[in-house]
Amino acid sequence: MKAFITNSLIRKINADGAISEKNLLVEACVEGGLLAAGQPLKLLFDWPAFLESIELGSLFWSFPSFEQSQLFNFMIAVLAQEEQKDELLIRLYDQVFVECLTQVKALPQIDQSFLLDQIQKKRRFALFSQAGYLFSAPLDHYERMLVENPYNTLHDLTLYLAWDRVCVNLAMIFENPSALKLSGLEVLKQCLVESFQHITGQGRTAPGFFRLIEAFYAFQMREENLQIHTDTEWLVLCQSAPALRPRDSLCDAVYIDESIINSQVIADPLSEMRKVKILTLDSVDKVKASLSLGRYMIEKLQKEVLDWGYALRSVEVICFREEKAGLAIESVFF
Questions:
Q1: Between 268 and 54, where is the model more confident?
Q2: pLDDT for the residue numbered 273
Q3: Taking Cα atoms as reference points, which of 156, 124, 2 lies closest to residue 54?
Q4: Which of 46, 67, 116, 233 has a beta carbon 3.0–4.6 Å from 229's, enabling a disulfide?
């Protein structure tokens, strides 16, 4: 069985691997009927899972505060003006992206030698861990990319991380309580949409869709917008608050980010046979809130963006819970 895994479950495996002689995740999958005895479990890592697996989940902790920057203050001042200049706002958005790229590139961890060394450290850990072998295949994949094509691999990782920060920074703009002109904020929203479409269209790096959702959530929750929501929309937005991820951490929302897909592909009858499996320690309520927010935002984008060509495909999410004896399956839903 192949399955993606969330960072919360990776941390559990890392913690238990050093003290347990059992592979608790595989045992839970067998006991829950997901795996037959002896059947292998092959884990798949997106970028956040890869970084978490090699102990780099706190990359963003050292990032400078965007809200305390001159660029943030200048953008707020521009957005507060009566007359909005779209070209200026677009240039400011581009500057946000450039600064995020520069900050990510400056991280000492975004380096071929450093990442390969972290992979080797994880391999040494795996020698003494029953659960460690689960990381072998996905780490092999990233090691091969770093050795055979380091430039493109580091470029894709840098772009992925910079996009994450751009969305977080724009969310801070959208939720700022100052009296800002919605027309200017709409320009910045469109910039985010166009960036997502451009990066996705290149077919190399899959930008995190959930971070885009969170930025739009901040816009929807502005005081000026609260009165325009229907009762149904308001209920979704209120219930979705627990789904939002910490901004100073990697975005651990693989069951959203791996479900975004071209609308033409989702119409393919074979797509149901290729349904993605996700293993997580997230609560059932958190997963449901995340999926509900994702579907709501997709519907908004399909209505508001003329050339929006993406949808959320069905994914199989397996929620685990922690027990004294290890792990157990809490729920499986689609």
A1: 54
A2: 47
A3: 124
A4: 233
Task: From 322, 319, 261, 311, select the one nearest 5 (Cα to Cα).
Answer: 319
Residue in the structure block whose two tokens are 């495996």: 13
Task: Determine the average pLDDT of the residues in 19-29.
Answer: 74
pLDDT tens digit sequence for 117-161: 999 988 887 666 666 678 888 999 999 999 999 999 999 999 999
Measure the CA–CA gap between 23 and 17, rounded to whole angstroms: 8
The single residue listed with the structure tokens 């969310």 is 171
Q: Beta partners for 310?
A: 262
What is d(CA 53, CA 10) in angstroms, rounded to the nearest whole number? Answer: 6
Average pLDDT over residues 211-233: 92
How many whole angstroms separate alpha carbon 272 and alpha carbon 334?
11
Most distant CA pair in the chain: distance in Å? Answer: 67
CB count, 10 Å around CB of 229? 15
Closest CA to 180 of 140, 137, 224: 224
Q: Which helix (H) or strand (E) holds 328?
A: strand 326-333
- Tokens 């229907």 correspond to 230
